[in-house]
Write a structure and sequence with these properties.
This protein has about 280 residues and is an alpha/beta fold. The protein is about 35% helix and about 20% strand. An 8-stranded mixed beta sheet has the order 1-2-4-3-5-6-7-8, with helices on both faces. Strand 3, helix 1 and strand 4 form a beta-alpha-beta unit. Helix 2 packs across helix 7. The chain is globular and about 50 Å long.
């Protein structure tokens, strides 16, 4: 069952993952790695690799996949308290690695993430690599399709750019290249959001659908299906049903969020294991 956040919150030591440093183009990030089988890069939402993000990564790992969990912002394993989360969010918005505002451009960090996909595929084999982004990193999984090793992109509540609810955080040239590849290789993009999410809106999903056509497979969950007691950062600063597979997931049979999690993992397994 979903943990109650009325209990004493605890950080996650992440000690069941191997901690590595990965450098590309003079940029170094910590990456937590665990599991066996084809690789999936799981990119954390704000405010970082929380216990809920780590829980999702373990579910992916337990399905017979190798998880690569890069640390892009925040304190690794930290329970998402409201004030700390807000500070992490403000820092990321002005970081040179991210483009939180302004449509039509990809965040520079996606180049590092594409390099990580190459490394992961070389190390793990399989047909290719999965990429799952959440919220602040949601659209990164789409831009990562510019790397041929990435075969299974999943966009969970993609929220950038923050200043335009109907825009996409990717250039027109990159978007065209991704669409051409999707058609050529018969690939699809999975995407998830809650109805009424004010950060990942219906207008944004409509923009993806217009750009990607039938290659875009959206899933919209009712807001009533969200965990009503998320951690303080989500309660105070997000303020709506938002995080499909983490803070707002209810881990119980028959719950729409649990079904979405299972669907995502099945999609990754099906796409990445050799046939």
């Amino acid at each position: 069952m979903q943990n109650s956040f009325s209990e004493v919150p605890r950080d996650d030591p992440l000690d069941d993952f191997t901690r590595r440093l990965v450098t590309f183009d003079d940029t170094t990030h910590t990456v937590y790695v665990g599991g066996d089988g084809p690789a999936v890069i799981v990119m954390a939402e704000m405010p970082g690799i929380s216990p809920d993000v780590a829980r999702f990564a373990r579910w992916v790992r337990d399905a017979g996949l190798t998880v690569y969990l890069p640390s892009l912002f925040g304190r690794d394993g930290a329970y998402p308290h409201a004030d700390h989360g807000a500070t992490v969010f403000k820092r990321a918005c002005v970081s040179a690695e991210f483009r939180a505002f302004g449509a039509g451009r990809s965040s520079p960090v996606t180049r590092w993430l594409r390099a990580l996909a190459v490394i992961a595929h070389r190390e793990c084999g399989g047909r290719g690599v999965g990429a799952l982004g959440m919220c602040f990193t949601g659209n990164f999984a789409l831009t990562m399709m510019l790397e041929p090793a990435v075969l299974a992109p999943v966009l969970c509540q993609p929220s950038l750019p923050l200043d335009d609810p109907g825009a996409l955080e990717i250039s027109a040239t990159e978007l065209s290249a991704v669409r051409e590849r999707l058609d050529r290789e018969d690939l699809v993009v999975r995407a998830y959001r809650f109805e009424g999410d004010r950060f990942c809106t219906a207008q944004r999903f409509a923009a993806y659908a217009a750009a990607l056509g039938p290659r875009f497979e959206p899933r919209v969950l009712p807001a009533s299906a969200a965990n009503p007691a998320p951690p303080p950062f989500f309660e105070q600063h997000v303020g709506c049903a938002h995080s499909v597979v983490t803070a707002h997931l209810i881990d119980a049979a028959g719950e729409p969020t649990a079904q979405a999690r299972d669907d995502i993992i099945a999609f990754l397994v099906d796409r990445l294991h050799s046939r």
